[in-house]
Design brief:
single chain, about 230 residues, alpha+beta, Lipocalin
């Protein structure tokens, strides 16, 4: 009886695409879920000088995503107060240290007809005896979500858009690798949080967690000596 040779290449050809797809999914998930890092820890999936997040292309918002963003932004009341925690790395790579600063914060939110959002926050640190302000803008332009710039320069890499959470990353080019921001907005009942985790030159540099609770205290007043900045 003649025994036919089995062609093992066919099963392998079916398995290889599945393995490749699984690898890509794992790679994307690993950069979509950043967490607190040790000082100067490498950017997730930072390999051989290349950032894997470039695989994630800037894309248009879906109709549902845009509706969710407009609904979430427009539903936020104007006046807020709360607390923020900033953790930033100081010292050299060989001898790093992490500084932790606590702030009381007050903020105002403005949204326009199109759902564009402006978040103006005042940070007050009693420990450091410092006061500064922060201006953040989220634009819904050309069916894209944009961060602090309503042109293509503000385009972000969308990671998640749901009724309770929005996550994206933004890269600013520079002489080296520039800065990469992981941004997460979480919405609750009469509260929301805004977190930024920042990598500079491919290494963890600082993060800020802002936790807001609705509070009707009136408009923010200009603070003498206030230093305004955009993140």
């Amino acid at each position: 009886m003649k025994i036919k040779d089995r062609d093992l290449s066919q099963p392998l050809l079916k398995i290889v695409p599945l393995l490749v797809a699984a690898y890509i999914i794992i790679s994307i998930v690993s950069i979509c879920t950043p967490y607190a890092q040790d000082c100067y820890a490498p950017f997730p999936n930072y390999i051989d000088g290349k950032l894997s997040f470039f695989r994630i292309k800037v894309r248009d918002l879906t109709k549902t995503e845009k509706e969710i963003l407009i609904k979430n932004f427009k539903s936020l009341p104007r006046s807020w107060a709360g607390e923020a925690i900033e953790e930033k790395c100081t010292g050299s790579v060989e001898s790093p240290s992490k500084e932790r600063i606590l702030y009381s914060i007050k903020a105002e939110i403005e949204t326009d007809y199109f759902g564009n959002l402006k978040l103006n926050t005042v940070f007050d640190s009693k420990d450091n005896n410092t006061v500064h302000s922060e201006k953040i803008n989220l634009y819904l332009a050309d069916n894209k979500l944009r961060f602090n710039d309503d042109s293509g320069y503000g385009d972000v890499k969308l990671l998640e858009v749901t009724n309770s959470k929005i996550r994206f990353l933004k890269r600013y080019s520079g002489a080296t690798l520039g800065r990469v921001y992981f941004v997460t907005l979480s919405f609750g009942d009469n509260s929301f949080s805004f977190e930024t985790i920042v990598y500079v030159g491919g290494k963890f540099s600082f993060q800020i967690n802002r936790n807001f609770t609705e509070k009707k205290y009136g408009f923010l007043k200009k603070i003498p000596g206030d230093i305004s900045h955009k993140i």
